[in-house]
């Protein structure tokens, strides 16, 4: 059994070798299966994914191998189209035999979350998370015992509050965080799992998104804020789940969260007609009257 045979049978590992012009010199069977092509059709063909080619060239130009690089790639989905897959990549430099000239690159990667379908249930149990009622699972984290009197708070608050509160939040594949608004700014902090996208609808009629996750090269961020009095919801961008922490100041109280009424949802659809379907999807998950 040769090295190629071993790499072909390495479960969960994807491997390919490309020359300086991004022509595939060899690919493992796992790699071919992942991209939905045969080994024969790939070997000898040029990689047509511009972003990957550019990244390969940058690594070769640096003269240094790349280790434990987190990235997101699009792969064919079973039902058609593509799905996002978060991976950890190692890129090595292929040098000319007996010399130092770089003549190609080796690419080896694996899924960041190979047990993505099992991990969320383990985390739900370990962190004692419970359903939120508006999508996802929640557990309180450390919070302040100091109190802020209602007279010191903006008029939108009714009653005293703790100085701040924190919580864990987990969103599983197939779930969305329902549309709602808060009296406080909600700060989000990424921990693990796939990226999550916040959909934010401002009182001024501006729609925006922010992707919270670990792939900074794809524009994801490790922390973000959903401002107070903005309608917002969230959905998972990849497989499995996402685990984040959220913090609010002053601390959360049930009176601080509101779901859209039928009239409010209708008004939002008029202001954001291009996102009417998204608003309906998010509002339905929030158990509103809509």
TrEMBL record:
Gene3D superfamilies: Jelly Rolls. Residues 122-256 form the DUF985 domain. It comes from the Bacteria. It holds the Pfam family Cupin_5. InterPro entries: Cupin_DUF985, PAS-like_dom_sf, RmlC-like_jellyroll, RmlC_Cupin_sf, YML079W-like. This is DUF985 domain-containing protein. It comes from Caballeronia glathei.
């Amino acid at each position: 059994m040769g090295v190629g045979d071993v790499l072909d049978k390495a479960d969960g590992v994807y491997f390919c070798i490309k020359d300086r012009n991004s022509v595939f010199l060899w690919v493992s069977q796992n790699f071919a299966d992942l991209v939905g092509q045969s080994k024969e059709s790939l070997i000898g063909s040029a990689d047509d994914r511009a972003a990957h080619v550019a990244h390969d060239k940058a690594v070769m130009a640096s003269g240094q191998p790349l280790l434990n690089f987190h990235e997101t790639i699009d792969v064919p989905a079973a039902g058609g189209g593509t799905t996002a897959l978060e991976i950890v990549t190692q890129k090595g430099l292929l040098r000319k035999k007996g010399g130092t000239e770089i003549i190609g690159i080796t690419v080896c990667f694996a899924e960041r979350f190979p047990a993505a379908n099992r991990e969320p249930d383990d985390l739900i149990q370990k962190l004692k998370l419970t359903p939120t009622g508006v999508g996802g699972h929640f557990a309180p984290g450390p919070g302040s015992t100091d109190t802020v009197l209602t007279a010191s708070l903006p008029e939108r608050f009714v009653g005293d509050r703790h100085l701040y509160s924190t919580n864990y939040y987990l969103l599983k594949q197939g779930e969305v965080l329902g549309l709602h608004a808060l009296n406080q700014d909600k700060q989000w902090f990424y921990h693990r799992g796939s990226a999550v996208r916040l959909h934010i609808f401002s009182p001024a009629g501006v729609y925006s998104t922010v992707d919270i996750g670990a792939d900074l090269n794809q524009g994801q961020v490790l922390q973000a804020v959903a401002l107070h009095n903005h309608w917002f919801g969230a959905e998972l961008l990849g497989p499995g789940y996402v685990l984040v922490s959220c913090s609010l100041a002053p601390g959360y109280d049930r009176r601080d969260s509101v779901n859209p009424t039928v009239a409010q949802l209708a008004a939002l659809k008029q202001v954001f007609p291009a996102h009417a379907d998204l608003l309906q999807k998010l509002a339905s998950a929030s158990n509103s009257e809509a």
